[in-house]
Amino acid sequence: MGLGHLISSNPQLFIGFVREQCKLGFSSVHIPVSIFHQLTSFRPRPCIIVFNQLFAAMCKIRPHPPLYTVVNFCNHLELSGLRPDCHSVGILANCYCRLGRVDFAFTILGKRLKLGYPPDVVIITTLLNGLIVSDKLHHAVRLLDRVVKLGLQPNLITYGAMFKGLCRNGDNAGALRLLRNMESKAPFKPNVVIYSTLIDSLCPAVASSPRSFQGDESQGYFA
Fold first, then answer.
1. PPR repeat positions in this chain (predicted)?
2. Which of 13, 57, 67, 182 could be bridged to 95 by S-S, CB 3.0 to 4.6 A?
3. Cβ-count burial 24-54 (b if 16+ within 10 Å, e if not)
4. CB-hemisphere CA count at 13 Å for 209?
């Protein structure tokens, strides 16, 4: 059955096809772009959930996900009157972070709050990753400290991103402080990925300068 027949005979059937195609993924941008234009032509327009599934699948296209296209599509939907939800706001923030525009991602956080969606660990982890990728690790550390003090508990993915950023930047002492804090205060323990990241970073560093890890214990996280 061709797409044209699906569209003309039963829009709901076409939407079902879109959902399945999003699960399978796309190898290029051409098909999802065509799908987007078809979806926006429907009256009544499909709900935001369908578009979220399409955008999430587009962000997974390799090797070059069409992030600018997703941003433009998100903005187009909002301008046309389709209210974003917390998931679509998160997709938009993730696109900006991956594009190196973490400043725009923080404005999306403000939009999320105005829409009535409180920050959660997903959006915070997205922003932390954006700061780390943009070589703003000190801002990421401050953000993590702040959200924990406000009562938002990071998850293992959040901690994993922080350990990766700290170790990549050679801040092994900071990574050790974060590890001790996580072991004592977090409701879960570090996993093998976190320990492996830390060990891979520590082994050559300890061999070359063992005294570098005898730092100030008072500089712990979440103090």
1. 85-119, 120-154, 155-185
2. 67
3. eebeeeeebbebbebbbeeeeebebebbbbb
4. 9
